[in-house]
Design goal:
Elements: H1 2-14, E1 24-26, E2 29-32, H2 34-43, H3 45-50
Antiparallel strand pairs: 1-2
Length: about 50
């Protein structure tokens, strides 16, 4: 159980305290949640974030 708590704390730290699900990371950096993923895919900026 201690490992699960440590993982939760680490994920909150890496996601700047966000608790949304899913938490999306690109190349180890927090990107955002599902809403941001879809919005940036729609306007084309997701390709830039992915380096495409």
């Amino acid at each position: 159980m201690e490992i699960a708590v440590e993982n939760y704390i680490e994920m909150k730290r890496r996601a700047n305290g966000e608790k949304t699900v899913p938490q999306i990371f690109i190349e180890g950096e927090y990107f955002g949640d599902e809403e941001r993923l879809f919005a940036e895919d729609k306007d084309g900026s997701l390709d830039i974030a992915l380096g495409l």
